[in-house]
Design brief:
Largest sheet: 6 strands, mixed
Helix content: 40-55%
Strand order of the largest sheet: 1-3-2-4-6-5
Order of helices and strands: HHHHHEEHHEHEHHEEHH
Distance between the termini: 55 Å
Structural class: alpha/beta
Shape: globular
């Protein structure tokens, strides 16, 4: 920090860099990369992306047959035509109280009740309300954001503040609204002061998010913001690199993979309106994908 810089200004600059996709820190002292042991190569299994949903399901089922049962964790692949790169050695399925509670839910109402009874996330102690979901649970489109803000915490619904109003205006030109989309977040309680959720808080909520997607069973996922995209797609890239690219999201309780499209969070667009053009391209891609899935 330079003399004269306030803590708030430095934190704001850091937040801007994170939103812009800067996900690596550069050390002041140069590192000798030749002294670092080479990492094991990532296993790549070439195949072709499926041209339709049925083919995608069979392709991924065939790949799972070659893997040991403990590797059946969520994974993804680029949905565009060309080679599909699988993640090497996915983590084993864990069995925690959160996973047990989430898997036991057989409906969205049961999942909400399970979250109400869940005490494994400390954010619950400081939040006013559980922010579970809004919109139409039967929708073909499920939007997954990051974390509730103050307005969402008071209302108990996601995307009801200024960001939510912008989201409504973004969806309207492609014929979508709150009655035709289903909306949630990767965090179900507001972090104090709207700070970024910690890794532990995200991990505590993740089993419920995965089960939420399984129960809603949408045709398409739209992941708004870097935290949502990187968490559910298990990627390290920032949102600048992830947005506009189609992925296949899959978890152990799903019968088929779901196309997932990362895009900018409306809160980011409020701070960076010049990026609205790219967000519009993402919305057009979403509309086109819905048309393709309706007429395979």
């Amino acid at each position: 920090m330079r003399d004269g810089d306030s803590t708030a200004a430095v934190l704001a600059a850091l937040a801007w860099q994170i939103e812009a996709g800067a996900d690596e820190a550069i050390d002041i002292v140069p590192a000798d990369r030749f002294a670092v042991a080479a990492e094991a190569p990532v296993r790549v299994e070439p195949t072709l992306a499926a041209p339709n949903r049925a083919a995608a399901t069979s392709d991924h089922a065939a790949l799972r047959d070659d893997e040991p049962p403990q590797t059946a964790r969520p994974r993804l692949a680029d949905a565009a035509p060309g080679p599909v790169l699988l993640r090497a050695a996915p983590p084993a399925l864990v069995d925690t109280p959160a996973h047990s509670l989430a898997r036991a839910a057989r409906s969205l109402d049961e999942l909400r009740e399970a979250l109400m009874a869940f005490d494994g996330c400390p954010l619950k102690d400081t939040a006013t309300n559980l922010v579970f979901a809004d919109g139409n649970p039967e929708s073909r489109v499920m939007i997954v954001g990051e974390a509730p803000g103050a307005d969402e915490d008071r209302a108990g619904k996601p995307f009801v503040g200024i960001s939510g109003q912008l989201l409504d205006r973004m969806l309207a030109p492609i014929g979508l609204d709150r009655t035709s989309v289903y909306i949630t977040n990767i965090i179900f309680w507001r972090p104090p002061g709207n700070r970024q959720p910690t890794t532990a808080e995200v991990a505590a909520c993740l089993p419920f998010v995965e089960r939420h997607i399984e129960l809603a069973n949408p045709d398409v996922l739209m992941l708004t913001g870097g935290a949502s995209a990187k968490t559910l797609l298990a990627r390290n890239e920032g949102i600048m690199r992830l947005r506009g690219r189609w992925f296949l999201y899959e978890s152990t309780g799903m019968s088929r993979p779901i196309p997932a499209l990362p895009t900018f969070h409306p809160a980011f667009l409020l701070r960076q309106p010049a990026q609205k053009r790219e967000a519009w391209r993402d919305l057009l891609a979403l509309s086109e994908k819905l048309g393709e899935l309706a007429h395979p």
